[in-house]
Every structure is written in C-alpha cells, then in structure tokens.
C-alpha cells in the first residue's frame, strides 16, 4: 500500500487555448477546459489508482471547493481520508498554449496546530490500516507538495516518524527549506528536481552544461546526500529523464523526446511509477540492481505519458501504454560515482 499525504491540495483548472496569448486581446476563448483533483500527493495517488496499485490519499479539505475535490477523487476511484479545515480549498489555474504552459498557483492557507494534529493522526490511521490489511507487504508514505506556514520541520518530523512507527518507509517530494527538513527528519527517499537539489546542497552548485543538465554531476551530488542521510534520491531532470542513487550506485534513465502538452504533474508521475515498482509487481523493499532499473524506467515512462496529456494525471489508457511500450523505450544506464 502507498499512502500519500498532500498538505496543500487543490482543484486544478486547465484551459487549452488554440493560439498563444495575445497581450493586446482582452478576452481569450479556450478550446477546452477541465477541473481535476490535484496537489502533488493527490496526483501520485490518482496515477497509482488508475494502474490498480493500492493507495490512499490523506489530505485536508475546506469549503465547497474541498467537497468538489473529494467528489472528483470518488469519481476517479481513489480511496481517501480527509481532514476538515476552515476556509476554502485553493484553486490553481493552468493555461496551455501552443508550445507553452502558464500556471498560476493560489496561495495555500497555513493550517492551525489543531488541523496539523488531525492530518498527522489521519496519516497514522491510514498507515496502521495498511499494515493490518496487508502485513506481509512493504508500505510507503509519500509526503508531497508545499507545507504552508512555519512548521515544516515539525510536520515532516512527525510524518516521517509516523511512517517508521507503522513499519513503512517515507518518500518526500517538496522544496526549499522543507526539503532540508525532510533530510533532518530521516526520510528514506527524497524526490527533488535538479533545481531543488541544487538549493539543498548550496547556491554555488551548478548542474548545467550549456542548456542541458549533466546527469553525472547530478548523480555525484545526489549520492553525497544519500550517503550522508542513509536514504535514496530520485531526481527529476525534466526532458532528460531522471537519476536515482542510494549513495553506492546510480542510474540515469531517459526516454525518447516528446512534444509535451502540459508538464504539470510529470514529476508526480515519476514518483508514482517508481513507488509502484516493476511492471506487474507491487511495492518492494529492494531497489538496487535490476528492480531499481525497472522502477526508474517505469517512473520515467509514466512521467513522459503525463507530459503528453493536457491534465495533471495521464488517462489510464496512456499510463497502460507507457507500461506496455514506454518502459521498453526508456534507456537506463549505470553512472560511475566519483565519491
């Protein structure tokens, strides 16, 4: 079972325009529009559920927009545990133009101490239920997205501790100071992109060679973090795929070039595919060797499929096609670490 927790979920409103935005035009008419339940952990659970992988999404909801978010999760067949908050769940907006995506995220309201306590308790309950329902399997908690307010350190510490108390491991996909807090909390897997990794290790770190990121440099830096923490890193490189390392070995995976419709949600799909494990298998405790390569290939394939979709999560048919065809099209290479 993969339990996700999304401290700052949202409704994602997407407009697809037939032509680029014209600053001299006051009214633009969309060709299509859609509304989805979203937020990084929600996206991970939605992708997993579409592929038949057991998952539960834990999230706070507020007001009419929160109720709509839960209705959309029900329609998607995603199991969830919701914590009521005051106010309204935020609405984020994406505008898809030919060759470009513009995204405007509404601010997340900082939770109260009581609301945070309820979110941690709901997460602990979901993890306990997963362990009771399937005691022989490996379980993960994925903490994904921003943590509004000034208590990121405390919240992440408590969530990682809840996972470990339930015999599960904890993956964290966040940014800025919260990513450093996840390191201190003892997360088992960090899932940043290259910019977030650079922010974590220091402002002088550079991964780019011209317009491209050097996977070897990323792997060396990520491996240093992995050795210092005893965990693993899964680093998204955007169109250049992803790097995984446990500090001892490292792999780089990349698929064929694609013309993306919408890159929002691609990193969430990468993490979902990695957590789902090799094609035809469930979560496992072993990530090195052949299984690690299959996990990485699946994650990159799911991420590419999501880029080809106008929404933040690819439709089931596209994810299934990614499993059948996309994984085989992904090239995974071992990287030699310098450390």
Helix content: 40-55%
Intertermini distance: 35 Å
Q: Give the C-level CATH assignment of the largest domain.
A: Alpha Beta
Strand elements, count: 16
What integer is the average pLDDT?
91
Contiguous runs where pLDDT drops below 50 for at least 5 residues: 280-285
Show the helix and strand layout.
Elements: E1 2-5, E2 10-16, E3 32-38, H1 40-50, E4 55-61, H2 63-76, E5 79-84, E6 90-97, E7 100-104, H3 113-133, E8 140-144, H4 152-165, E9 169-173, H5 176-185, E10 189-190, H6 194-201, E11 208-209, E12 212-213, H7 215-229, E13 232-236, E14 242-245, E15 250-254, H8 266-276, H9 289-307, H10 316-329, E16 331-335
Helix pairs in contact: 1-8, 3-4, 4-5, 8-9, 9-10
Which terms would index this structure?
40% helix; 339 residues; globular; four-stranded mixed β-sheet; 2 domains; ten-stranded mixed β-sheet; single chain; alpha/beta; UDP-N-acetylmuramoyl-L-alanine:D-glutamate ligase
């Amino acid at each position: 079972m993969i339990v996700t927790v999304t401290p700052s979920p949202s409704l994602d409103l997407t407009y697809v325009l037939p032509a680029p935005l014209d600053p001299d035009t006051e009214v633009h008419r969309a060709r299509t529009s859609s509304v989805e339940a979203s937020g990084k952990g929600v996206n991970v659970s939605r992708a997993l559920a579409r592929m038949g992988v057991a998952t539960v999404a834990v999230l706070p909801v507020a007001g009419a927009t929160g109720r709509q978010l839960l209705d959309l999760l029900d329609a998607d067949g995603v199991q969830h545990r919701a914590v009521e908050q005051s106010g309204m769940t935020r609405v984020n907006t994406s505008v898809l133009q030919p060759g470009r995506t513009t995204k405007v995220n509404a601010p997340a309201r900082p939770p109260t101490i009581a609301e945070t306590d309820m979110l941690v308790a709901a997460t602990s309950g979901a993890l306990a239920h997963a362990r009771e329902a399937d005691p022989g399997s490996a379980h993960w908690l994925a903490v994904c997205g921003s943590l509004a307010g000034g208590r990121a350190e405390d919240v992440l510490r408590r969530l990682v501790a809840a996972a470990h108390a339930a015999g599960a491991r904890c993956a964290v996909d966040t940014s800025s100071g919260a990513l450093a807090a996840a390191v201190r909390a003892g997360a088992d897997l960090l899932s940043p992109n290259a910019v977030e990794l650079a922010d974590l290790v220091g402002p002088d770190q550079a991964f780019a060679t011209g317009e491209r990121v050097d996977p070897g440099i990323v792997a060396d830096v990520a491996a240093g973090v992995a050795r210092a923490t005893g965990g693993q890193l899964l680093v998204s490189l955007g169109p250049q795929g992803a790097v995984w390392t446990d500090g001892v070995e490292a792999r780089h995976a990349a698929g064929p070039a694609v013309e993306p419709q919408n890159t929002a949600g691609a990193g969430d799909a990468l993490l979902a595919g990695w957590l789902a494990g090799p094609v035809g298998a469930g979560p496992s405790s072993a990530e090195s060797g052949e299984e690690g390569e299959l996990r990485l290939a699946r994650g990159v394939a799911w991420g590419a499929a999501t880029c080809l979709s106008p929404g933040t999560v690819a439709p089931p048919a596209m994810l299934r096609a990614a499993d059948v065809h996309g994984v085989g099209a992904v090239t995974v290479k071992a990287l030699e670490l310098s450390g």
